[in-house]
Each structure stands twice: as structure tokens, then as C-alpha cells.
Design a protein that fits this description.
about 180 residues, 5 helices
């Protein structure tokens, strides 16, 4: 299997986001309940290595969940696969602009997938922290933290929708342009 750094970062960001937000919740909880708690008690290098390594694994799982719920279930597969196949045909047969179309398409599709995974990460963190509030600890600081996560999730969803619509607009325009060129 060939792992590129961009894939590790793409999978890591949702995982690091989730783990970071959960860690902040526990930091708020511990600092409120135990005044003796400090970050100096945590061994930096091992915790950092565990955080980064497990963040990639958790992020990959979040990415897969986002693909399942945000893509696989919501799309009509036959229609989607047909459109993808036709779009790939346009890219492969357009000798002048094929590489440029592929580059733009890949960039926009990557942004759609990344933002959807980040949105899912924020939502899962929001749900986890809300459950922890009922089970473990709740305070006004935690409530403010939940509000911040909620706002980040809303902003991320809006950005996801923007990039999603932008991708489909781009695909539509390329398909229209290709149809016009075939007719002339």
C-alpha cells in the first residue's frame, strides 16, 4: 500500500480535531475539579506521539463514516457512477484541457471530502462531549465550549456545501462545454 503524506494529513485532521476537542473537555473538567492538575504532569513526547498516531487512525475511521453517511447513502449509485464515468471520458479525450480539468476536479473533490470528514469529526465530538456532560461533568465553561464547537460545525457545513455546489457547477460547465464542442 502506498501512503502519501497528503493522505495521512487528510485522515489525521478529523482525528486530531476529535481527539483535541475531547482532550480540551477533559482539561476543563480536571482543572475545575482538581486545582493541582497541570499540563506539566503530562509527559510531552509520548503523549504527542500517541496523539498523532491515534489521530490518523481515528481520522481514517471518521473519514470512512463520513463517506458512508455523507456520500454512499445519499447518492443514487447508478446515476453517480454513470456521471463519473462520462466525466472521466471527457477528461481522457480532451487532449488540450484534460490535465487541467483533472487537476481542478481533483482539488475540488478533495476539498469536498475533507470538509465533510471535518464536519463529521466536529459533530461526533459535539455528541461525545454532550454525552460526557450528562455522565461526568458540566459547567458554564463546558457549555461555552459546546457552543464554540457547534459554531465551528455550522461554519464547516456551510463551507462543505459551498465546495460541493462549486464542484457540481464545474462538472456541469465542463459537460456542457464538451457537448457544445461535440455538436460543432
Amino acid at each position: 500500500m502506498n501512503f502519501e503524506t497528503k493522505h495521512l494529513i487528510r485522515w489525521g485532521i478529523p482525528g486530531w480535531t476529535y481527539l483535541g476537542l475531547i482532550s480540551i473537555y477533559f482539561y476543563i473538567k480536571e482543572s475545575a475539579l482538581n486545582n493541582a492538575f497541570s499540563l506539566e504532569q503530562i509527559p510531552f513526547v509520548p503523549i504527542t506521539a500517541i496523539f498523532f498516531g491515534s489521530g490518523i487512525i481515528v481520522g481514517y475511521l471518521i473519514h470512512q463514516l463520513s463517506m458512508l453517511f455523507g456520500f454512499v447513502i445519499l447518492n443514487k449509485w447508478d446515476k453517480y457512477f454513470e456521471r463519473e464515468f462520462n466525466f472521466d471520458q471527457i477528461i481522457m479525450t480532451d487532449e488540450k484541457r484534460g490535465n487541467e480539468i483533472q487537476r481542478i476536479y481533483s482539488y475540488r473533490l478533495g476539498n469536498v471530502h475533507a470538509l465533510r470528514a471535518l464536519f463529521f469529526s466536529l459533530v461526533i465530538a459535539l455528541l461525545t462531549i454532550t454525552i460526557l456532560c450528562f455522565v461526568m461533568y458540566f459547567s458554564i465553561k463546558v457549555f461555552c465550549f459546546i457552543c464554540i464547537i457547534f459554531l465551528l460545525a455550522v461554519m464547516t457545513f456551510i463551507n462543505f456545501r459551498y465546495f460541493h455546489e462549486n464542484l457540481h457547477f464545474f462538472m456541469r460547465k465542463v459537460e456542457e462545454d464538451h457537448s457544445e464542442n461535440d455538436q460543432s
